[in-house]
Amino acid sequence: GTGCKMKKWSICIFWGFIFFGTSVIAQEQQIPLLDIQNKKYETSLERFYQTRSVIQTIVPQVLEAELEADKYPVGPGDQFKVNIFGEIGETYDFTVLPEGTVLVPTVGEIDLAGMDLAKAKQTIKGRVQNIYITAEISVNLTGLRKFRVYLTGEVINPGTYFAQGSDRLSDVIEVSAKQRPAYSDEPETGLNDWADDTKIQIHRTDGTVLTLDLTRFYRFGDKTQNPYLKGGDIIFAPSIDLSESFVIIEGNVGYQGIYSLRENEYLFQFLRRVSALSKRSNLCLLYTSPSPRDR
Q: Are 246 and 263 contacting, i.e. CB atoms less than 8 angstroms apart?
């Protein structure tokens, strides 16, 4: 019945029931490092960067909402603009250097290492205001840096990916799915069948390890389980632990495979969590079989 607790089961779900003339504008178009028609391009870092970047549009960045200044960490590559309004009007554009500093004309070097956006803007404005005492100063972040993250574990295409401060865990996993072999008939996900997507780990450079249930984001939109990424993050997808409770789903369904079972989880709760049910599902034709060691 649907009210009984599960241990290790094999579930067979049957069909019908459950189961872009080139014109060159020198000042506006960025010249690529390598001509894309050059054979060397096929193995260049530039092509690798383009295919493994989360943002692949002509727009500098695509945000889901306004950046939270007190939560966005400033780092090398972030771009700023300072506007000075007064008797002497000036505009300065500059980028955070690899050491975490910026060079502002007429002001000098400013150290922003370790600061969030709110603190960085306050620091820049204070230093500029010391020079332009009576002027009105505005400081704005105009471009987000890109950084490397690493995808490892039970994934289709492990390796280095390029993200920015507005990208979440799911963005990297989803863009990795675009690198999967053309002949693959598996569902379009960056994870393979053995990945436990309820225990995805993010290892941060400060030693922090986050353990996340990505299914809660996809199923319920829980963004706490799909955090923003930081430079140097290592994303690790662990294998399903076969020494613990697990379920195998078989049959003509979109999401066959092995799934870990949560403690005290009922059959219907499990089927809903892994999206095995549809409007045509007929639970009366559900067939469950215990694993050999439970017989």
A: no
